[in-house]
Amino acid sequence: MNSTAAPNNYGPIFVLGAARSGTTIVSSALEKMTGFRSLGEGHIWPLVLALSRLSQRYYAGLSAIIDDSHQCLLFEHNSEELTAGIIQAVLDLYGISRTDFIDKTPGVEMISCTDMLSHVYKNAFFIFVKRGPIATIRSKLKKFPDVEFSNHCLDWVNCLNAWDDIKQHVANSYYEINHADLVERPETIATELAERLGYEPHAASQFVREITVNTQVERTSADHSVNDNDVANTEWDEKEKSDFRRICEGTAAKFGFDIFGNSSGEGKIGKIALFFPMHESEEAYVVNRNAFCYPVSHGFQLCPNSSGEGVLALHFKNVCLKERRQFSLTVRREFLHGPDVMLRIAIVETTDGSIRNVVEELIDTITPKKIAFAIDRAAEIVDIEIGVHILGHSNNHYATIIINSPTISELLSSPA
User: Pfam families attached here (predicted)?
Assistant: First the structure.
């Protein structure tokens, strides 16, 4: 196939991620599925972005000291026109005016180019590959042993956070791949990706074959280890382990990566800190029933047990309302494998244990959803329960749910 675009008119395809996260095997598999040519690691666009930003700064600085009455050749074209000219020159020079190519340049600099690339190529499609920090850094250390350990950690953190910040600009034109899913369920990844790009289902088989060959090699290589989810069991020294936890722990939690060997743990009961604006007399507990819960940043990853049951309840005990009558929180589904997730919120009056308010929401999208409702009782002290249910019956179903800043505030009256 030598098409100039995917059937859904997508093209080119940019495979993004931290170095050693799996961008190479994804690019190779895409090449088989789409027939697009691979540029490998182009490393062109970060330079173009740097030139664009330099142009903007130069124009701004010159405009501050030269007014319109001065004759200035530069101002015969504005900064945007100059940038467009630079980009066109790059396209012509490297022969990439066509769109049937794949670029797999890794690193935060390339991720930062996403917004610009979406304007240069109106039908560009972006694939972000994310891999757990331990596996990524172990592989990076093997490939680049002369780079400081802490710099490898920072690169992983910066790549994931940069993508999280910029993906909103290409909301309908990206697909995220977790490296673990690529290894364990390539058929699902291939089917979903083929559908997004507009290919027939049989095209997915080419993707799967390539992934299977490459991941089989990886499974037997030295940088694949059962210790990839437990920092305590790595070969790193104590300082490196300490640096890793200091730099990577927060981002690992945010994106649902286990770094403490908890992925096969049993159900737990534990406190979630910094989850709710609590007073000294109030307590917030996560009560995990028949499921393994792995806390992530302002949220949790929920995995049903072998019986397929998955229910997680967050209890906020003895919350003092005073004059506050509005409960609200923002929730989004970060990742889901299997059926959808139901969120249930209940306000329980502690004086008699009766439920006064219930809201149920289906969390069926990654778009943040604000849930708010009035508390209709005048009780001073209440309990707030938030229940999360996976709507499925298999221990292969799991989800990461992010709940941001639950608050209780005064109920504002509607404008007349």
Answer: Sulfotransfer_3
